[in-house]
Specification:
2 domains; 5 strands; three-stranded parallel sheet; elongated; alpha/beta; two-stranded antiparallel ribbon; Rossmann fold; about 110 residues
């Protein structure tokens, strides 16, 4: 399974490291607007691979995710009215927010 993580900051890099240590996936692709950061984080995580199952961790681009079958989004904020969905195609348990948040449909 190929896993793409958009954002190689503290959260994205930690998520990638956790996936490596849990043995999830065969390829993890870190995508970030700062390509040097994505490469550095991928290199750091690769140092943990000998202690986990063999897989590939690398810097990539959105083109690497062109044939993706599942896309999950990230929600920023606290619970309630302060939540902001950061992408228009995000789904929550298979449902699009516009289906259960009709008053805010214009945001999506």
């Amino acid at each position: 399974m190929r896993i793409g993580i958009v954002g190689a900051g503290l959260v994205g890099a930690t998520a990638a490291y956790a996936l490596v240590m849990r043995g999830v996936g065969r390829e993890i692709i870190l995508i970030d607007k700062n390509e040097a950061r994505a490469q550095a984080e991928a290199d750091d995580i690769l140092h943990a691979v000998p202690f986990a199952h063999p897989l590939q961790v690398r810097r990539g681009s959105y083109r690497d995710l062109a044939d993706t079958q599942h896309v999950h989004g990230y929600v920023v904020g606290e619970h309630g009215d302060s939540e902001v969905l950061t992408w228009s195609m995000v789904n929550i348990r298979g449902c699009f927010p516009r289906d259960f948040l009709p008053r805010a449909w214009y945001l999506f």
